[in-house]
Amino acid sequence: MSIGAEVPRDRAKRLLGGRGRFVDDISMPRLLHLAFVRSPYAHARIEAIDCLAARALKGVVAVLTAAEISDAVASWRAEHKLFPTMAAPEQFALATDVVRWQGEAVAAVVAESRAVAEDGAELVAVAWAELPAVVDAKDALAPDAPRLHDHMDGNLAYTAEIAAGDTKAAFERAGHVAEEHFRFHRHTGVSLEPRGIIAEFEPSEDRLTVHQSHQTPHQQQDLYARLLGLPEHKVRVICPDVGGAFGLKHHLMADELVACVAAKLLARPIKYIADRLESFLADVHCRDHEVTARMAFSASGDILAIEVDDLFNAGAYGQYPRTSIAEGNQISRLTGAPYGHEHYRANLTMAFLNKSILGHIRSVGHPIACAVAERLIDLGAAKLGLDPIELRRRNYLHGDDFPRTSVGGIEFEYLSLRDCLDKALAMFDVPRFREKQAALRAKGVYQGLGIATFVELTAIGPEYYGEGGQHISAQETCQIRLEASGLVRCYTGATDQGQGIDTGVQQVVAATLGVPLEAVEVVSGDSALCPVGGGSWGSRGAALAGEAALRAAATLRRNVLSIAASLLQKDPADLDIRAGWVMEAATTHMSVAEIARIGHFQPYSIPDGIAADLTVVERYASKDRLFLAGNGIQLATIEVDVDSGIVTPLRHLVVHDCGRILNPMLVREQIRGGVVQGIGSALYEELRYDNDGHLLTGSFADYLVPMAGEMPDIDVAHIETPTATSQLGVKGAGEAGTAGAVGAILNAVNDA
Predict the structure, then answer these.
(1) What is the C-alpha to C-alpha distance for residues 310 and 578, in angstroms, rounded to an integer?
(2) pLDDT digits (tens, 9 = 90+) for 511-530
C-alpha cells in the first residue's frame, strides 16, 4: 500500500470491538489502590497531618506523607538552559510544609480497593493555616502581593523581550494603528481516558515496571529512574492503548510518581486512576494569558510593525521536565508570523500564582498568537476600508521571501500561504455568503465569517530540548526485523494515542520495503522493547518517526535484495521488491518470506561479505533547526443569537500544508478533532476560579465541551509542500486544527 493511501487505523477494529487494553483494564495479583488527600485551599500551611484513623481502617495498607517518602524519592526543578533566568522552585512528590494550589496532594492512602482508599483519605485529618492567595498575574506581581515561594523576592517567574527593527519609529510614521486587549482563559486537555498508572516493583531485582496512560515511555523511564534512584535499565515503562492525550500526558505528574514510590516501598503493585474531579484539579492546564497588542499599517495597507505584551498567568510551579514557558515563548515568537514586516517587539511576563500548574497542551501558544494577529488584521482592514481577505494576501510572506528567519527568530523553509488562501476561496463562495449575511441581518439574524491564517511549529529539533538540558529525546529510532515467517515487525519510539501514527509508520515501511500493508506489524509504547525515542507530542510523530522508519526500511530492503541477488546470481540493481516478491522486470523470482526463511535457518547459504542482516536500526533527528513550520488557513461561519449570546458554529473550512501526507484520511480526522478542541476553547471550555483560588468548574456539569450538536461541518483540504530536510518530506499536522480555530471563531463572532 503506497504512502498517501487512505487506510483505516490499524488498531481501530480492535478498539471499536471493545477489545482495547487500557491501564484500568490491567490487573495483577496483590494489586493495591491509591487515593490522595488533596488541599482544599489554594494557599495554606500544613500545621499537622493525623493519619491514625486512616491507618486503622480495615483494608488500608499504608498512609504516606512527605515525611514517609522523603528518602525514597528526590525533588526536582523545572529548569531550562535556554531560559536561564527563569525561576524554578523546588518541587516535591507530596507537599511538605505549604500547599500552593487547590488540589495539591499532601498524603496518599494505599488500600485493598479504591473505595477503601478514598474512605481512608476522608479520615486523614490535616490542620491547615490558610494563607492569602493570588489568582491573577497583575495581583501576583504587585509589590505587596503574598509570595508563593519564600526564597523568591516576588512572584515573577520569567520576563523576556524579543525585538527586531525599530517599532517606535514605525508606529510614529504609520497611517493607521489597530490595537486590542485580549483575555484568553484557562482550560485543559479533557482526554476521554483520564490519567492512569500501575506501578510494580520487584525488590529481588530492584526493578520497576510501570503501565501508564502516557505519550512518552522513554522520558518516563528516565525520570522515574533518576527520581527514585534506580538504574535506568531497571525501569520499564509500558504505554498500552491510550484514550487520548493532547499533550496532557507527556509531563511528569507528582501523583503518578507517588504511585511508583508506594510500589517501591510496599513491594506490591499500585494502581492509580484519576477521577474526573481530580483531572480538573490536578491535570496540567493551558492558556491563561492576557495580551495587549497593536499593529501599524501604512496608508496603503502594508503591515509596518507589531508590538505584543503577554502577561502569562502560570501556575504555582513550572511543569517538569518541559517547563511551562513554551506557551508564552510561542506567543512572543509567532504573533504575526505569516506576514512580511521588519519591525517587531514582544514582551513576555510570566507570574507564579495559586493555581494548578500550566503545561503544554495541544497547539502550545499557537491559538493565541494566531488570534491576536488575525483580530488586528480585521481591525486594520476596517480602519483602512479594505477587504480583510485581500489585506492578508497583500501582506503574506511568499516567493522570494523564503527561506527566512522571522522577526520572532523562527526559521521558515517555505510557507504556502497564498496557495492555501486560493484553495480556501475556491471552496467557499465569500460573495454569496456576504449577500446572504446582509439579507439575514435585515431580518434580525446575525451570521459572521471569520478567517485566520496560522503558522504551525512542528517536530521540535534537538536544538530546543537537547541544548535546553532536559532529558527529552529529540530523535526517533526505528528497528525493523524481518521474521522467519516473512512478517516485518517494526519497533518505533513514537506512540499512538488515537492519531494513527502506527498506521502511518506501517504505510511507510510497507511502501519503502515493497511488501503488503498487512505484512507489517508496528510495536510501540514500550521502553524495553522499542528503541529510544521521544514519543508522540508536538506534531512530531510522522515527521521524525516516519523518517526513521523510511530509513530503516530502505536499509532492510537493500539487505533483502543483496541476499536475493547472491542466491539468484543477479545484480542487486536489476532487482526490485513488489507486493512481497523479488522481481526482475516482469519476472517473479522469489518471495520476501522465502528470503526470510533462508536468512534465519540457512544463513550458511549466503556468501560472506553480503549485507544479510534481517534486523536493522536507523535513527533520525532533524538537526540545525528548532522546528519544521507548517501553515494553513481557516474559515469559520457562525450565527449569534443577540438575545441569549449563544454562538452556533455553522461551517468550518481548513486548508493546511503539512508537507507530504502519509494518510489523508487520518490527517483530516486529526485536523477535525483539533478544530473541535479549538471551538471548545473559544466558546465553551473554561476552568474558573474564585478570588481565593477555589476551582468552580470541577465537573462536566459546568465545564462544557463541544458535543456532536455543537460541531459544524468541517471541510479539510491540503496543499503539499514537502520539506527538503528529510527524504520523506513530512511536517507535523496534529495541532493545526486547534491553532487556527480560535482566531477564526473570534473573527466570525465580531463579523456577525
Answers:
(1) 55
(2) 999 999 999 999 999 999 99
3-state secondary structure 28-91: CCCCEEEEEEECCCCCEEEEEEECHHHHHCCCEEEEEEHHHHCCCCCCECCCCCCCCCCCCCCE
- Choose among 683, 669, 667, 666: nearest CA to 742: 683
Grid cell digits, residue 173: 510614521
Compute φ and ψ for 404, nearest 5 degrees. Answer: -150, 140
Helices (H), 340-416: 366-384, 388-395
What's the whole-number mean pLDDT along residues 79-103? 96
The x, y and z cell numbers of residue 396, run together, are 503574506
Beta strands in 204-249 (DSSP E): 207-212, 235-238
How far, in Å, CA of 248 to CA of 209, rounded? 22
Backbone angles phi, psi at 398, to 5 degrees: -165, 165
* Structure-derived torsion over alpha carbons of residues 147, 153, 158, 163, reported in degrees to the nearest 10: 130
Query: Would you state the pLDDT for residue 129?
Result: 98
Which pairing describes strands 44-50 and 125-130: parallel, antiparallel, or unpaired? antiparallel
Closest among 313, 365, 356, 326 to 155, alpha carbons compared: 313
Q: What is the pLDDT of residues 621-646, one digit of tens each?
A: 887 778 999 999 999 999 999 999 99
pLDDT at residue 321 in the model: 93
How far is Cα 480 from Cα 128, in angstroms, rounded to an integer? 56
What's the pTM?
Answer: 0.96
Q: Cα dist. 615→324, 346, 610, 611 in Å?
A: 40, 50, 14, 11
Task: Note the pLDDT tens digit of each residue in 12-34.
Answer: 999 999 999 999 999 999 999 99
184/140 Cα distance (integer angstroms): 18
DSSP string, 292-349: EEEEEE-TTS-EEEEEEEEEEE--SSB-TTT-STHHHHHHHHHTTTTB--SEEEEEEE
Instruction: Give the number of other Cβ atoms within 10 Å of residue 176's Cβ.
Output: 18
Buried b (16+ CB within 10 A) or exposed e, 237-272: bbbbbbbbbbbbbbbbbbbbbbbbbbbbbbebbbbb
The b/e string for 508-541 (b: 16+ C-beta within 10 A; e otherwise) is bbbbbbbbebebbbbebbbbeebbbbbbbbbbbb
User: 447: Cβ–Cβ under 8 A, 6 or more apart, which residues?
Assistant: 433, 436, 437, 440, 441, 637, 638, 639, 640, 650, 752
Q: What letter represents residue 562's amino acid?
A: S
Which is nearest to 536 in space by CA: 442, 666, 646, 431?
666
Query: What are 180's strand-pairing partners?
Result: 293
pLDDT in tens, 349-389: 999 999 999 999 999 999 999 999 999 999 999 999 999 99
pLDDT tens-digit series, residues 127-137? 999 999 999 99
What is the average per-residue pLDDT within 236-263?
A: 97
Q: How would you classify the pairing of strands 32-38 and 105-111?
A: antiparallel
461, pLDDT greater than 90 = no
Angle between helices 366-384 and 326-334 (to 10 degrees): 30
Report which of residues 12 and 434 the model is more confident about.
434
The total of other beta-carbon atoms located within 10 Å of residue 717's CB is 17
Sign of CA dihedral 229, 231, 234, 237: positive
